Input
Amino acid sequence: MDDTILEMRRITKTFPGVTALEDVTLAVRRGEIHAICGENGAGKSTLMKVLSGVHPTGSYDGEILFDGKPMQFRGIRDSEANGIVIIHQELALVPYLSIAENLFLGNERRGRSGLIDWNRANADAAELLASVGLHENPVTPVIQLGVGKQQLVEIAKALSKKVRLLILDEPTAALNDVDSAHLLGLLRQLKEQGITCIMISHKLNEITEIADSTTVIRDGRAVETLDMRADDVTQQRIIRGMVGRDLDSFYPDRVSSPGEEVLRIEDWTVRHPTQDRLVVEGVGLSVRAGEVVGIAGLMGAGRTELAMSVFGRSYGRDISGRLFVHGREVKARTVAEAIDNGIAYVTEDRKRFGLNLIDDVRRNVSAAALARLARLGWVNGNEEIKVAEASRREMNIKAPSVMAVVGKLSGGNQQKVVLSKWLFTDPDVLILDEPTRGIDVGAKYEIYTIINRLVAEGKAVIIISSELPELLGMCDRIYTLAAGRITGEKPVGEATQESLMELMTKDKELVG
Amino acid sequence: MTSIKTPSTERPTPPDRAPAAALHTGTSDLRALVLNNLRQSGIYVALVVIVALFAILTDGVSLSPGNITNIVLQYSYILVLAIGMVILIIGGHIDLSVGSVVALTGAVSAVLVIQQGYPWWVGVLAALVVGVAVGAWHGFWVAYAGIPAFIVTLAGMLLFRGLTLRVLDNISLSPFPAEYQRVAAGFLNGLLGGQGFDAFTLLIGAVAVAGYAVSGFRTRVARIRYQQPVESFPLFVARIAVVGAVIMYFAWQLAHARGLPIVLIVLAVLVLVYGLLTRRTVFGRQVYAIGGNLSAAALSGVKVRTVNFWMFVNMGFLAAVAGVIYSSRSNGAQPAAGNMFELDAIAAAFIGGAAVTGGVGTVVGAMVGGLIMAVMSNGMQLMGVDQSTQSVVKGLVLLVAVAFDVYNKRRAAGTR
Output
């Protein structure tokens, strides 16, 4: 154990109402590539934030030993001073500044006069770029580079800070195959230079390819660390660790009796709004009345993008494919048209896309179907209150009154407001994107009950979720999505967490 | 299906019992009511304090009949502009061009009526058409071309000032015929006679108070029927009485001066219409939704572009109304007319509680904000305070008002 560079001992981190990490211990050997994997929300990113000082010392329990010395990071500056650099999934580059300006941001190359010595900065930058295999002029604005090259600039920036432990969060999630391969090659090269690397990844094939050890995190606990060299660790072995959780009797029972098909999409293809890549490729799926269909996929698989592009083309460009509602082809080119066709979409990010947080419950509930409360453009305020009151009762929204400001409600109650809003549009099919994200257990159960009630009333429901137990507990049928393609479809009776995870991590080539 | 929850069967008070309940339900917790409405009541308190302050400082001159009439005439066009401005600010936009549009619409009207000899109403109509066209121009660039309103209207400010100079050929035009002057300088007086005062003005005042009381009571009944909290009945009566007394005092003072200004009627109608428009129509509610959370509004099916477009058309229309009033009052058109009006209108909206980030604000609030500015300017003029000090004071008041708003919001966020 003397060659251990990093040891995190018994880390526990709680947020109000949630324990994100519980008693996590992690040991990383000097000069290895250490992969961390787990489902979305398992606590991987939180652990890395503790390590890099984003969550400062004192906000968690446990200790961090780096090079055998105990560390107390008060912020990201402290960790960087010790050579620990984190590269986040959302790249932190300033788009309109040049590569060199980005590389030395906050660490500028000054001349003797105190002014920035641009000649030196650009020369140093060129050297750094060469070391990561990026052949670009340092004065090029970052916005002109593709995501893959931006990733390399981030790594070059880390190198400029004399990095000893490099942390990458989902480095290849947004990259195409060529860029991914280049990046993995670069990581190997850094390893030879003695730089230790922690990599969070969902791509199990990459992990088996380059990682020396893999730690699996599940529900805020480090369940195991696999030695990738000693053991013959397969992707299936990792999957077992990621999902090995009991399916408890947490989901309300429901008798399934699907009726006629309500919504079907065929050959649905969507291009990224700004980058030249397909986010959704040739997807086909259908849902029937009284049926709950799940879409399982890891981060970056294109789940939300698929749903939003179907919902009035709210995402992406060059959308092609056919959309049928009740067997009739519809265009639904705007959100209003989608709503008119009986489609409702409950967003995964209710604060940013679902609610007007500074307004009250009443007006949020009526927001998507105000026309139903109006005659000749005049809103019947009394009727509106009645509708909102009815939702408050039926959904059990815990708010002092329907005049309460939505921003002050708990996550679960906010979600019930969003659901109320969409139910008031009287939809035939509801697309629920992460319907229980960030809400407590009791409220989750209530949401599940509401979903079951809707299905019993003959609505069709599509659930997009990162939590496989939730899909297995709620759905009749589950599609798996990986890299924008449907990789499988299973009736819930034949699906297990392992089999779904295998399909979700399936590679493009394998899909063929 | 084993898990359906039976919906609760409790029902609100039956409608037939609600009017009776209106007399004895409600809270007397004045403190809670005031605290809950701090943002709104804060500006009313500020207005009362400022009015009282200047009444004392000017030995009552600021409340004299002649001066009250004067304030109405002098600031009406700012208040008209503030109506359109607060709607834009609620929607998350701004309009820096309204001063230039006031000048342009007045100039077009003056050219037609003074130079070409058309009747007065042709001038008014032409001004309104030009205003709407300007609004549509701004609306196109903001809503459909996606250029920020700040830039579009900054360009408009230069553009329409230039067009004003072109239309007027760089000279001032005056005077308007008497009918045109009556738009802003006219009074309804002596319609019902009176001894030293105008009975008609008092009657209109009384009608306004009665309307306020009736609509207040109806709102109260409806709120109780829907089990919403209301103030206690004595408190409700007290509120009606205080507001009624203020209106009647105001009417009494006007009746002792020159009667009811036509401009005041125009303004009152606009405030009433736009107050309802913002609170009670689908359009108004979509403005708040867009300003509150643009993405959520778009994902709720709000046609964001259309709403944005009409917001600007409306601003153009109101700028034209202000242009007519201003040209009528100044009895002519000048190349530099309306300079800096946009800043007064914006200040009125913000002092009146509109949020810089959008989604918050009321027409009535903007009117109170505008009145605060008006009473302050007028009072300082009466006291002979020089222009420089006036500007400093107005600037500080705007700053403090918005600082209060930001502080309030932060406090609200803290209790979340």
Summary: The beta strands of chain B are 187-188, 260-261. Chain B has one domain: 28-189+258-408.
